[in-house]
């Protein structure tokens, strides 16, 4: 029996949540305009790019992209194929966290109004294996790195303090074992 | 070398020389400031390239498109920056939607002015990303030959498509000091893989085919591009299977063959659509299951297994989830498949189809005024179905598809995916340049023709004997049909009051004009037009104002809900598609 793709077949789109989202890794030529082509593929099918990390590959002629995506999982296979079809894309694949190492880093700037608070904060940071990277009389910048859920957990605890701002790098991913990313 | 010595060539000359080496025969274009060095190179480089000055950049793109659809080879479109480049968008989109090879070279402002809103600067690279197979903004003069060669390669291999090359003026007029034979550098583009076929799904497909009792072959444009006519015929005869084709696949399987069902889909034949509803196997060879074909997706071929053969992996599971996916060039796949398919007999199934052909023939009324169908039927007979036919988009297009049966590939030239009005006439000019000895007929509506009629000048100057058949009902007929069926006959924005006298218009350009008003005159007047070969001839056929195309499957409805005649009840507004 042939199956058509109808809305009834499709699972509801997941919540826009980076933990439940999908992680795509791409290896692309390193030149102006490549990112525009890739972003248009996602926007056209109403996928939101939650996080995006671009950096030069080991060979400077290429770049590595890691994208955190939320949207209908049923259409993701199509998106991967459409990205692979782009002339500038050498390779695009989806990774689940069980088959891959996913990491991100966050910098959190917190207001300090007492020594007591500073001690508490340092304990939390230590628990998450973080580091203080800037300290003044009135503020502190901490760095926490790990899987996305760990970063989320740290932010949830620090919400009780007076967070001035946070900056997350977005996810980077690498396939486990000898598999290619 | 003395420092004041002239360089051997500039970038523009290197570009034209490379295009000539690639075998480009025609450049269709329109000049302008940013493209001056490239236009100059057309004069200074000794090449076989012929340049055709059009009257609008959109016309240039459709001409290159018509040339490519008639030959399978790409032509080049050459225009200036800003508005010149902007006017090519519709034509590029038309080519991209229908997988047509094309190379578009646009002039551009000098590189240091890009992004500064300089005169006639437009980010055509960014603008065209969604409508090209690939594009370039050239930033080094010495890259021009490599990029031109890559553009040609990308446009013509794998699933073909348009490639745009944007050339800033300082890049084209700087000295060229590089290697004209610089190799291509496309690590992410591997069309050669299309010829390496995974044998497993082919074997499974053969098993399904050999077990099938009521098969249908769906032949698409991909089979034509691959040149798989012979293999397709072998498969159809071996399987003893009826063959339907898409709008763009018309001709890849001869429509006058006893196994042929003609076109399927929204305005396809009743028997083709019935075949899809009743069959137990669909073998799709190079069609992308367009929404105009499948109607309501979950009811398409509901009783059938589906085999999908396509060169483009991203077409798999896009509209229809097949039982078997075979990725690759249609000819390569069929060559492998044919070896494993057994000779079959499906007499009762073929008899069922023949019964439907008798019950639901394509017919039209001969009373109550001149009908477009009659004109098309008669021109089909007069040309023995041998002409190259181009169309615009709308009712005349669907009737032409129904009544002009094609027995060969590359003779039916119609904008399918994009549905571009104004395509037919310039596409016919391109096809006539490509095939000077063949009869080329542009079947146009009065709406579409007026969008690109300025190309009459181009056709007259080159004395092209294109037959322009304006099927004139003074209406945007297809939209009016929908308003009649789905919007309580409330006409809105469809009355083309104010049409010119098309015969006088043709004469004003120096073309011949012929009027047809009475059904009895059709044969005689068409014959007169077909015998006139000193230049373009426009035939204005004054047709019945309000006529409807049937069969019809309302957009998004199931194929079994096809109407073969006007409905006697009020129709629901279609919601599944446009």
Helix count, DSSP H or I runs of 4 or more residues of chain B: 23
User: Quick one: biggest sheet of chain A?
Assistant: 5 strands, antiparallel
Any idea of the CATH class of the largest domain in chain A? Answer: Alpha Beta
In CATH, what is the homologous superfamily of the largest domain in chain A?
Answer: ACT domain
**CATH topology grouping of the largest domain in chain A:** Alpha-Beta Plaits
Radius of gyration based on Cα positions of chain A: 19 Å
Stretches of chain A where pLDDT is under 50 for at least 5 consecutive residues are 4-19
Q: What is the CATH-assigned architecture of the largest domain in chain A?
A: 2-Layer Sandwich
What ranges of chain B have pLDDT less than 50 throughout 5 or more consecutive residues? none
The proportion of residues forming helix of chain B, as a percent range, comes to 25-40%
CATH class category of the largest domain in chain B: Alpha Beta
Structural class of chain A: alpha+beta
Largest β sheet strand count, sense and barrel closure of chain B: 6 strands, parallel
Keyword list:
heterodimer, A: 181 residues, alpha+beta, Alpha-Beta Plaits, five-stranded antiparallel β-sheet, 4 helices, 39% strand, B: 578 residues, alpha/beta, Rossmann fold, 3 domains, six-stranded parallel β-sheet, 23 helices, 19 strands
Tell me what the structure shows.
The complex is a heterodimer of chains A (181) and B (578). Chain A has helices at residues 34-44, 76-85, 115-127, 148-158, and strands at 3-4, 22-29, 48-56, 62-70, 89-95, 100-111, 131-135, 139-146, 163-168, 172-175. Chain A has 181 residues and is α+β, with helices and mostly antiparallel strands. Chain A has 2 domains: 7-95, Alpha-Beta Plaits, CATH 3.30.70.260; 101-175, Alpha-Beta Plaits. In chain A, strands 6, 7, 8, 9 and 10 form a 5-stranded antiparallel β-sheet that branches. A 4-stranded antiparallel β-sheet of chain A has the order 3-4-2-5, with helices on one face. In chain B, α7 links the parallel β5 and β6 (162-168). In chain B, α1 runs parallel beside α7. Chains A and B meet through β1, α1, α2 and β5 of A and β12 of B.
């Amino acid at each position: 029996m042939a199956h058509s793709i109808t809305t009834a077949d499709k699972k509801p789109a997941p919540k826009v949540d980076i933990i439940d989202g999908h992680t795509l890794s791409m290896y692309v030529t390193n030149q102006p305009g490549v990112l525009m082509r890739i972003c248009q593929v996602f926007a056209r099918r109403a996928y939101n790019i939650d996080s995006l990390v671009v950096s030069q590959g080991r060979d400077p002629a290429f770049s590595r992209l890691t994208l955190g995506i939320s949207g209908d999982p049923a259409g993701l296979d199509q998106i991967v194929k459409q990205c692979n079809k782009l002339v500038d894309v050498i390779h695009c694949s989806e990774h689940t966290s069980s088959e891959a190492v996913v990491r991100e880093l966050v910098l959190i700037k917190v207001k300090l109004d007492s020594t007591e608070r500073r001690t508490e904060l340092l304990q939390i940071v230590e628990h998450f294996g973080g580091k203080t990277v800037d300290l003044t009389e009135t503020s502190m910048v901490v760095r926490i790195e790990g899987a996305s859920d760990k970063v989320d957990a740290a932010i949830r605890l620090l919400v009780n303090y007076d967070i001035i701002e946070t900056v997350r790098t977005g996810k980077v991913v690498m396939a486990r074992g000898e598999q290619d990313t | 070398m003395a420092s004041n010595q002239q360089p051997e060539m500039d970038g523009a000359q290197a570009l034209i020389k490379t295009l000539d080496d690639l075998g480009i025969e025609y450049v269709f274009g329109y000049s302008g400031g940013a493209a001056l060095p490239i236009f100059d190179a057309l004069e200074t480089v000794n090449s076989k390239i012929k340049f055709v000055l059009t009257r609008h950049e959109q016309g240039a793109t459709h001409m290159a498109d018509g040339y490519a659809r008639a030959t399978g080879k790409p032509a080049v479109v050459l225009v200036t920056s800003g508005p010149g480049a902007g006017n090519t968008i519709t034509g590029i989109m038309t080519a991209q939607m229908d997988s047509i090879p094309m190379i578009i070279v646009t002039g551009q402002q000098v590189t240091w002015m890009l992004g500064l809103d300089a005169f006639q600067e437009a980010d055509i690279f960014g603008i065209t990303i969604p409508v090209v197979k690939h594009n370039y903004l050239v930033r080094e003069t010495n890259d021009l030959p490599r990029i031109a060669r890559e553009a040609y390669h990308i446009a013509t291999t794998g699933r073909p498509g348009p490639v745009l090359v944007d050339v800033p003026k300082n890049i084209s007029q700087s000295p060229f000091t590089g290697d004209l034979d610089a190799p291509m550098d496309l690590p992410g583009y591997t069309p050669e893989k299309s010829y390496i076929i995974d044998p497993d799904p082919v074997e499974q497909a053969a098993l399904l085919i050999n077990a099938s009792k009521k098969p249908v072959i769906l032949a698409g444009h991909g089979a034509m591009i691959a040149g798989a006519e012979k293999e397709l015929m072998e498969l159809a005869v071996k399987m003893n299977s009826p063959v339907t084709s898409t709008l763009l696949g018309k001709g890849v399987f001869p429509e006058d063959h006893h196994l042929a069902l003609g076109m399927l889909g929204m305005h396809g034949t009743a028997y083709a659509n019935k075949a899809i509803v009743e069959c137990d196997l669909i073998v799709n060879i190079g069609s992308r299951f367009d929404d105009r074909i499948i109607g309501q997706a979950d009811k398409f071929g509901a009783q059938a297994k589906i085999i999908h053969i396509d060169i483009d992996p991203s077409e798999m599971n896009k509209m229809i989830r097949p039982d078997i996916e075979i990725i690759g060039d249609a000819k390569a796949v069929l060559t492998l498949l044919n070896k494993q398919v057994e000779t079959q007999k499906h007499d009762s199934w073929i008899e069922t189809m023949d019964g439907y052909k008798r019950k639901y023939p394509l017919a039209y009324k001969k009373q109550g005024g001149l009908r477009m169908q009659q004109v098309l039927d008669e021109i089909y007979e007069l040309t023995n179905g041998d002409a190259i036919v181009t169309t615009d988009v709308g009712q005349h297009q669907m009737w032409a598809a129904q009544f002009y049966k094609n027995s060969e590939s590359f003779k039916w030239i119609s904008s399918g995916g994009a549905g571009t009005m104004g395509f037919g006439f310039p596409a016919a000019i391109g096809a006539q340049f490509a095939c000077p000895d063949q009869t080329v007929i542009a079947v146009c509506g009065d709406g579409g023709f007026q969008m690109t009629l300025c190309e009459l000048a181009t056709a007259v100057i080159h004395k092209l004997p294109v037959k322009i058949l304006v099927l004139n009902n003074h209406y945007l007929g297809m939209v009016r049909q929908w308003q009649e069926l789905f919007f309580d006959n409330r006409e809105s924005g469809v009355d083309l009051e104010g049409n010119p006298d098309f015969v006088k218009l043709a004469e004003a350009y120096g073309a011949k004009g012929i009027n047809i008003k009475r059904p009895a005159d059709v044969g005689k007047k068409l014959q007169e037009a077909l015998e006139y070969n000193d230049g373009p001839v426009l035939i204005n056929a004054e047709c019945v104002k309000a006529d409807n195309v049937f069969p019809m499957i309302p957009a998004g409805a199931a194929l079994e809900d096809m109407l073969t005649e006007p409905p006697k009840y009020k129709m629901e507004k279609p919601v599944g598609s446009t």
